[in-house]
Amino acid sequence: IGRSFIDFVHSRDRSLFASQITSGLAVPKNVPGGSTALEKATVFENTSSNMVCRIRKYRGLDSGFGVKERSISYMPFLLKLSFKNIWDDDINVTYLVIQATPFFSAFKVPHEPVENPIPFVIRHAANGNLEYIDPESVPYLGYLPQDLLDKDALQLYHPSDLGYLQHVYEIIVREGVVPRTRTYRMQAQNGDYLKLETEWSS
Q: SMART domains under this entry (predicted)?
């Protein structure tokens, strides 16, 4: 209590976290249906955004009430950010409300087949640069979305699958869509490969 939340956010995610808050504080000047202070405050409170970031884990205390000497570790969370106005002694105070949901790996042992996997979306440009990574992919691939943005999607595919994927891309260019493909491999954050089936579209 009393510490700044951003102190617990991984240094690689702090700029993204700050930009999400800044964009959330920017209330539109023109509010549909009117522009009174009350209406603007209502829009402000109803505005929320999501992001994924790494939050520092609590290191615990030893028997002597001193912080244990061990390395700092972080855990990925999906954050839902929203703002709430609260009146306190006739002063309107704005609070940032953070709802954090932890991510856990979808795998417990190597080579484990996943039952009822959750689909996720990845979008990249024609040159291969990744433009969007669904947060639902985190338990499977291990990357945070911001870690992959502007990276080359082709670098994630297994070299042995590139010939087949080239054929898939040729069909997409010609027809605009490809039904669910056969299994191919994509590299996860730990260096291993995940087998995927994909429905492609342009």
A: PAS
